[in-house]
Amino acid sequence: MKFNRVSVRKTERAVLLRNGDFERVLAPGQYWFPTLFDKIVVERNEMAQPLYIGAAADYLLATPSDAANEYFVRVELNDTQAGLLYENDSLVELLPPATRRLYWKTSANVRVETVELSGEGELAKDLIAKITHSQLKRRAVAGLQAVLQVQVPEFNVGLLTIDGKLVRSLTPGAYAFWRFNRNVSVEYVDLRVQAVEVTGQEILTRDKVALRLNLGATWRYADVLKAFATTAKPVDNLYRELQFALRAAVGTQSLDELLENKTALDEKVASAVRERIANAGIALEAVGVKDIILPGEMKAILAQVVEAEKVAQANLIRRREETAASRSLLNTAKVMEDNPVALRLKELETLERVAERIDKISVFGGLDGVLNALAKAK
Question: Where are the alpha helices (DSSP H) in 252-295?
């Protein structure tokens, strides 16, 4: 009779298969097996890798035995369960539903916790902390792709969608959701005041003048869930409403009315848009027309009109000043006519003005002669 010697080290466990069937587990030691009539196969497993994936795995899972209970940790998850695999109380792997495995009972102290995948599938805060801690230590948990990790920033909310259905909003903070058996996504929405620009709008006024207008508006979300339940893209919807309201407001006014009171146009557009989005979950903060751009020929015509108006105003002011000056001279003449002293003072004032402009004056015949000469010169 022929014998085979098998040695199992202390860092190993072995499974004995006789003619393809499981016979027993071999602990560390020396073994002799006759091989005359039977085919002996020994599967060796290093304890550093506690997962057993040998030929007898399905048999040991399907047929509980003392050997299986003594040497293995059994994992059998149904279709609505996920598993958390721990080694020495450290999370090392996330197991998907319907997982069936055997792990060697070793010094690694392997254990598995089951988690029901019901409701929204949100992970507990302590489990999120364990996953985050493992990532910080650069020992990522295996199977982490089965979890959607979310960090909602400050001043934002997250819109949680499961299998295409908007479920709820998430306040700022850390979240995680199971992806098993579902399609999970989170969209971030900024709650702060935002700006939207409606530029390059070619619009005809009531008097058929083509204008190009640029409009700016500020807005914020008043009710995020309502906004996304009403329209797929709230910002695009707000842009269209601003565009339509601007066209309607400009089309009912003439060019002169628009240029005279642009504030009225802003108020008209804002009022129309607020009425249209009253139940859309969006609050319109402010609206303002930034630019009104005229065609080239219209600019030239308006420039001529403005120039003519300014020339007319200048002529009117000039005539008014001339009239006032003439009236003042007439009043002065009347005063001098009745008052010789006043006339004399005026003559002296005139002489002083003349003297200021002349470097040298030669007087002949006295001061009266100079005054008389000046009077004759006038």
Answer: 255-260, 262-276
